[in-house]
């Protein structure tokens, strides 16, 4: 039975992936900030006969990430999916008119925290469980990125905090892939598509279910040929 460790499992794409992989028989360690308030995830876990284990995890709490690694040190974790991330620390819905991340409105503290959540935390997660990943069969580390992390496709500017963190995620995963390839570990950033979630715009083309189904296929088909590539939810490759 393969094992998944996923962050941000309580809603949106993360919950969609958990639900689909649980139905396929995967063992799942699902993390979120407040499991007690994650009613749908709690219900899914209760009905899973011990297949799903919930863990409380705040991604800005780096010692807690290390502690989770210790808790799971005897596990063989097939896939780490760093799904959780933020566009802004206030968790406001995406708004094209939002100016707080535009040129001339730099908030250093906000930018730093967004970077810590989107970039530093996924690296710390990978470091915390890399030995558990290495002893598994699938040996896969995936971090959610965005089309907004593509340098070539950035023709509009704006959203500088978020864009730069996702570009950094892409570089981080590319480097991780090179370092861990000798151990047979697969690493790549994954763009989930433009999805209708609580934080994204209502007219986004993809439903959570469509994105999650595509991501599950990418997870199941991951191989070393994907390692270091900028992948999308439908198995295609994004331009850097």
What is the end-to-end distance? 34 Å
Order of helices and strands: EHEHEHEHEHEHE
Count of DSSP-assigned helices: 6
Strand order of the largest sheet: 3-2-1-4-5-6-7
Using the alpha-carbon principal axes, give the shape. globular
What ranges have pLDDT less than 50 throughout 5 or more consecutive residues?
none
Q: What's the level 1 CATH class?
A: Alpha Beta
Classify the helix fraction into a percent range: 25-40%
Predict the CATH topology. Answer: Rossmann fold
CATH hierarchy: architecture: 3-Layer(aba) Sandwich
The counted number of beta strands is 7
Question: How many independent structural domains?
Answer: 1
Instruction: Let me know the CATH homologous superfamily.
Output: NAD(P)-binding Rossmann-like Domain
Average pLDDT metric: 91
Report the biggest beta sheet as strand number plus sense, adding barrel if it closes: 7 strands, parallel
The portion of residues forming beta strands comes to: 5-15%
Class per helix and strand makeup: alpha/beta
Rg on CA atoms, Å: 17 Å
């Amino acid at each position: 039975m393969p094992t998944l460790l996923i962050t941000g499992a309580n809603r949106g794409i993360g919950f969609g992936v958990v639900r689909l992989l649980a139905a396929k028989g995967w063992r799942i360690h699902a993390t979120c900030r407040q499991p007690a308030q994650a009613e749908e995830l709690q219900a899914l876990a209760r009905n899973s006969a011990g297949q799903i284990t919930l863990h409380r995890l705040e991604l800005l709490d780096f010692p807690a990430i290390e502690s989770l690694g210790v808790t799971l040190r005897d596990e063989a974790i097939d896939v780490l999916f760093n799904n959780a991330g933020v566009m802004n620390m206030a968790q406001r819905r995406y708004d094209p008119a939002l100016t707080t991340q535009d040129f001339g409105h730099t908030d250093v503290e906000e930018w730093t925290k967004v970077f810590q959540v989107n970039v530093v935390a996924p690296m710390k997660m990978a470091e915390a469980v890399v030995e558990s990943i290495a002893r598994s069969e699938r040996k896969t580390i995936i971090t959610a990125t965005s089309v907004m992390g593509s340098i070539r496709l950035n023709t509009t500017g704006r959203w500088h905090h978020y864009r730069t963190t996702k570009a950094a995620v892409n570089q981080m995963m590319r480097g991780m892939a090179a370092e861990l390839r000798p151990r047979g570990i697969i690493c790549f950033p994954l763009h989930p598509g433009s999805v209708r979630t609580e934080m994204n715009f209502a007219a986004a083309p993809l439903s959570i279910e469509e994105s999650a189904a595509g991501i599950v296929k990418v997870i199941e088909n991951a191989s070393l040929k994907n390692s270091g590539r900028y992948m999308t939810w439908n198995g295609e490759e994004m331009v850097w």
